[in-house]
Write a structure and sequence with these properties.
Keywords: Acetylation, Cell projection, Cilium, Cytoplasm, Flagellum, Lipid transport, Lipid-binding, Membrane, Phosphoprotein, Transport. Pfam families: START. The protein is built from five helices and eleven strands. By secondary structure, it is an alpha+beta fold. It has a single domain, classed as START domain (Alpha-D-Glucose-1,6-Bisphosphate, Chain A, domain 4, 2-Layer Sandwich).
Length: 266
């Protein structure tokens, strides 16, 4: 990010794409029917300490939805309520530039782990057959951490979608986040082996159904492609600062057992 602005520059996008396509230090955790999930291979940790930052990468080979439609699905907040199974609440707060906005998102975590939320700056770029969306956590005075949720940190999270034909694409999701709190190992494993593939399948299905849904719901309104349609209040990016993980309270949830497992064993 350039010295005078918090908004991502060309370098941030290029670095993100490079991570999406890189094979180094990634450990495959799931590989089934056109979908792969990797987690970053971290240095060896002593004892049961899971590293604070969790990096996960999911890749899907899509043969029946265009890259443009998948990009629209990720942006369309109205449509998200229809397909995102883990969402509690999501709304846009302000726009920062023609291709950047500020948003709030909270999601359901596997029980008995507390639910999480984030306030993120999201920025996007469309180039020929490549679509990129990145986000990272920022501080906004009007949206401080809430007592009923754990404020997580997105260090750099996003999507890289590359068109492979008029109705097909490669879809990559990469998350580099500090979920805050010392999470037990099963949560990290469940996230990579169960939850990530499930959400990816939902996103894919959302893409298949989007063109028909959009026909009925303001078909020409796509502010993410046509900034002049954006009705959000304008905000100066200089009012925002990057949310660092160490300024937030840590919650220890290492001793939490998977609710599913404890039901099975009871």
């Amino acid at each position: 990010m350039s010295g005078d602005s918090i908004l991502p520059d060309e370098e941030v996008f290029a670095g993100f794409i490079e991570q999406c396509l890189s094979k180094d230090n990634w450990l495959n955790k799931y590989d089934k029917s056109g979908m792969q999930v990797w987690v970053e291979q971290s240095p060896v940790y002593k004892g049961n300490n899971v590293p604070k930052v969790h990096k996960i990468k999911c890749k899907m080979t899509i043969s029946d939805v265009s890259a443009a439609a998948m990009f629209d699905v990720l942006h369309d907040g109205q449509y998200r309520k229809k397909w995102d199974p883990t969402m509690l609440e999501s709304f846009d707060i302000a726009r920062l530039s023609a291709n950047a906005d500020l948003g709030y998102y909270s999601w359901i975590c596997p029980k008995p782990i507390k639910n999480r939320d984030v306030v993120t700056l999201r920025s996007w770029q469309v180039k020929d057959d490549e679509y990129v969306i990145v986000n990272f956590s920022v501080k906004h005075p009007k949206y401080p951490p809430r007592s009923d949720l754990v404020r997580a940190i997105s260090i750099l999270t996003g999507y890289y979608i590359k068109s492979t034909g008029p109705n097909s694409c490669t879809f990559i999701y990469l998350s580099q986040a500090d979920p805050k709190g010392s999470l037990p190992k099963w949560v990290v494993n469940k996230a990579s082996q169960v939850l990530a593939p499930r959400v990816m399948k939902c996103v894919h299905k959302a893409g298949q159904n989007y063109p028909e849904w959009k026909q009925q719901n303001s078909p020409n309104r796509k502010p993410w492609l046509h900034p002049e349609q954006n009705t959000l209040p304008m905000m100066d990016p200089a009012e925002l600062s990057i949310q660092r993980a160490d300024s937030l309270e840590n919650v220890d949830e290492t001793n939490k057992v998977d609710a599913q497992d404890s039901e099975d064993s009871s």
